[in-house]
Amino acid sequence: MHDPRPNAPSKPARRAIALLLSLVPLLPPVARGAHAALRCSNELQVDVCLEADGTCPAFSGTPGPVDAEWANFQRDPQHTGKSALRGPTCDRVLWQSKVRGPVLSQPAVGRPLPAESDGVLYVASAKYPVCAFSPRDGSQLWCATENRGKLPDRSAPALGNDDSIYVGTRDNDMWNMKLPATTPGVAPEVLWRQKVCTDGDISTSPVVSPEGLVYMGSDSLSAGTIMAMCPGPERHVKWCHNPVGDGIKNVSPALDPTGTRLYVSAGGRDLIAYDASTGEEKWRVRMEERRNGLRGANYSPVVNPSTGRIYFGGDEGVIAVDPIVAPGSGAESAAVSILATPDKGEILTSPPAIDVANGRIYFGAARGFNGALYAADLATGARVWRIEVPKSQMRNRPPVIDGDGNVFYVGRYTIHGLRPDGTEMWRVDTGDDFQSAPVLARARLYAATRQGKLFAIGGCP
């Protein structure tokens, strides 16, 4: 059987852990109980993968991601950012709402409530793990849990078919919450919280595999941790790697079209392929030497659902990674190439979005505090158009694409809808700035500002 804990902590990681353990007795009793709880024994602080056993308990629910309008970061487990639905074609603001605390991650859109046609909007807020809003008028359905804990950062919510919602927080936990009944004000039930016991902020956006495994990553002392959690109400680690070799921060793992390979970017420079079910490492490649060190960048991989090719936004441009299987032996590896480049001096700090049906790839890039949005040919990387996005670094803000090939993105204080040729359909000025990308639903778009203001745009003729 494959060992679900193949990597022992490195020497630098062991030294850092030892230092942390030496400081534990100095903490006041309240802080020690709040952060370590009973889930962080000395053994788990030395080996965060100790609980992984390669198995999952029997699960009676339906596994896999939920069939919803926008179930996780960039919509699907491949992070294409492409919806089959038509987005808004006008600048009509249907409603505005407010959540207490900053919003730094992309929202999610789940299933509709009974007698409703549009899915519920879920937003991670720095004051709560996650809040739910009615798509009809933006009224708050709930925004609390019965458990202590907060500080979501860049982790976007992910929805599972067992009516669970998953989100990571900076108190080192990933939460699994059972979505409540439709009564407004009823908080979700917290089924479990998985802690990374080596100061492991969960700023990664989880993703759910077809077999129901929930993948969570952590920066974990800048050494990196990746875990596969089993579906269901019981907290159970199937497989785990620690240290990965570099931090996993502000990104989301991606699955190949078959759901059998999991791709994780570490440190913004390495791409690692794992067997999605067992956690066996299949290959890793160095895409580039990371130089910018910008906080809040998002280096999530994006997978072409037709070809399996992987795309990554880096300092040099859009990098393409092609998985290779050797004839005969079946050994796996990958080839790296540059697909598309921005103007000189610009770098990418968000993943691209891909429109396979129309053969396009879209990406944002910036130099200093001024950005640009690009359209390129998906096969050749040839530039189709470029538009200026003033005063915007385009960081952690990938574009999204609707079923008609229209493109939507946020600038610093604005929301934009573009036609496929790059001409503008509409623009909405918000007055607040953005730290995350918009999402698409049925004939509408949602966007959340850093200050916690929510916008619903739609209702167009």
Summarize the structure.
The protein is mostly beta strands and 461 residues long. The chain has four helices and 32 strands. The protein has one domain (11-458): Quinoprotein alcohol dehydrogenase-like superfamily (Methanol Dehydrogenase, Chain A), CATH 2.140.10.10.
Task: Provide an overview of this structure.
There is one protein chain. This protein is mainly beta and 461 residues long. It has one domain: Quinoprotein alcohol dehydrogenase-like superfamily (Methanol Dehydrogenase, Chain A). The chain contains four helices and 32 strands. The chain has helices at 11-23, 29-36, 42-46, 220-223, and strands spanning 93-98, 108-112, 119-125, 128-133, 140-142, 158-159, 164-168, 173-178, 189-195, 207-208, 214-218, 225-229, 237-241, 254-255, 261-266, 270-275, 281-286, 302-303, 310-313, 318-325, 332-340, 353-355, 360-367, 370-377, 383-389, 400-401, 407-410, 414-418, 424-429, 439-441, 444-448, 453-458. The strands form eight sheets. Strands 1-32-31-30 form a four-stranded antiparallel β-sheet, with no helix packed on it. A four-stranded antiparallel β-sheet has the order 2-3-4-5, with no helix packed on it. A four-stranded antiparallel β-sheet has the order 6-7-8-9, with no helix packed on it. The chain is globular and about 55 Å long. The termini are far apart.
